[in-house]
Amino acid sequence: MWFTLFLDLVSFGIVIPVLPFYATHFGAAAWMVTLLSTGYSAAQFVMAPVLGRLSDRHGRRPVMLISIAGSVAAMLTLGFAQALWMVFLARIISGVCNANVSTAHAYVADRVPPSQRARYMGMMGTAVGLGFIFGPSIGGLLSRPDHPELPFLVGAGLSALNWLMAYFWLPESHRPSRVVGPAAPRPSLLRALGQAEFWRTQLGVLVLVSFGFFIAFAAMESTFALYTEAAFAWTAKETGKFFSLVGVVIVIVQGLVVGRAVSSFGERRTMIAGLCALGIGFGAAAVVPYGWMLPIVAVFIAGGNGLIMPSLNALISRNSTSETQGMNIGLTQSGGALGRIIGPMIAGGMFEMVTPAAPMASAAAVALAVAVVALLMIRELRPDAGR
C-alpha cells in the first residue's frame, strides 16, 4: 500500500510544475489556471466520502484498482488533449481518483492495531511526502517545449505500472458484512453541514479540525511566493528550495517522530502540539525581518504538518468501526478539500487589500484557534479504543 500510494502521488506530482504552462498553451488566462486547482479540490470534496463509503461496502481493493485506473485515464486525457475543456476534464477525473487517499488510510486502519495506527499512518504520510518531492522534479525534467505532453504520458505509464502491481500484490484488507435492506444514503459533507448533532460528535469536531488546518495551510501555500517576492525579493528558485525543505522535514517527522510522540503523549496531544507548531511557524513567517530566517520557520511549519495528519487520521479511525472507516476518513478528507478551496480565496483577498503578510498572520490565528477547539472538544482515547 505504501508503494501504491507513493507511485500514485509521483504521477500526480509530475503535473504540478507543467500544468499551468500546458493550460496557457490552450489559451487559458491566469484566472482560469487557478480554476484547475479549484476543480480538482471540488471533485475531492464531493467524492472522498463516496469512495470511502464504497470501500466500506465493497472492499478496499476494488476501489483502489478503479481509482488508479482513473488516474491512467486522467493522464492520457491530458496527454492527448486538443482543447482547454479536456484539460479541465482531466483535472476533475484526477481529483475524483486522488480521493482514494481516504481508502488507503482505511486500509491501514484495517491491518494495524489502534495503538499503532498513528505510526503507520505517518509512514503512509512519507509516501505522500516523497511523492510530492520526486513527482514535481520528474515533471520539470520531462518538460520540453517540442513535446509538452511528455510528462503526462510518463505519468500515465507510472499509473499503469501502479495498477498492475496493485492488481497482483495488493490483497483485500476488509471483508464487508452483507447488509440486508436498502443501501444507506450517500455520504456528503454538505448534508452533514445542516445537522447540528453531527458537529457535537467527535467525528464532526475532527472534520472541523481538518477544515481549519487546510484553510490555514492552503492560505499560506497559495500566497507564499507572492509574499516572499514582495518582502524579501525572493524568486521561484528560493521559494522552490523552501518548499523542498518543507517536504523533507514532513517526511522525516512522519517517518521517525510521530510514532514515538503518539506512544508518549497520545494522538490528541500530538495533534494539538502540531497545530501549535504550525501556528508559531505561520506567525513567525509574517514578522521575520530577513529572508534567511525563513528556513527556520519552515521547520516549525513542516514539523507541525507532519505531526497533525497522522494523528488526525488515527483519531478518525479510532472513532470509527470497521464498517465506517472509509466513509469517516473520506468525510474528513472532504472537509480538507473544502478548506483548500476557501483558504486561497481568503488569502488572495487579504494579500491584495490588507498587507502581503496578512495571509501568514491569519493562517497562524486559524491554526491556533483550531488547536483550542481540539483541546476543548476532543476526548482522550484509551489505548485499545477503535478496535
Q: What does it look like?
A:
This protein is mostly helical and 387 residues long. 79% of the residues lie in helices and 0% in strands. The protein is built from 14 helices and no strands. The longest helix is centred in the last third of the chain and has 52 residues, at 236-287.
- Give the helix tally: 14
Number of domains: 2
Helix proportion range: over 70%
> Could you give me the name of the CATH homologous superfamily of the largest domain?
MFS general substrate transporter like domains
What is the strand tally?
A: 0
**CATH architectural grouping of the largest domain:** Up-down Bundle
The CATH topology of the largest domain? Growth Hormone, Chain: A
Largest sheet: none
Average residue-wise pLDDT: 84
Structure class: mainly alpha
User: What order do the SSEs take from the amino end to the carboxyl end, as H and E?
Assistant: HHHHHHHHHHHHHH
CATH first level of the largest domain = Mainly Alpha
Beta strand %: under 5%
Q: Unreliable segments (pLDDT under 50, ≥5 consecutive)?
A: 180-184
Q: Roughly how many Å apart are the termini?
A: 21 Å
Radius of gyration, CA atoms, in whole angstroms:
20 Å
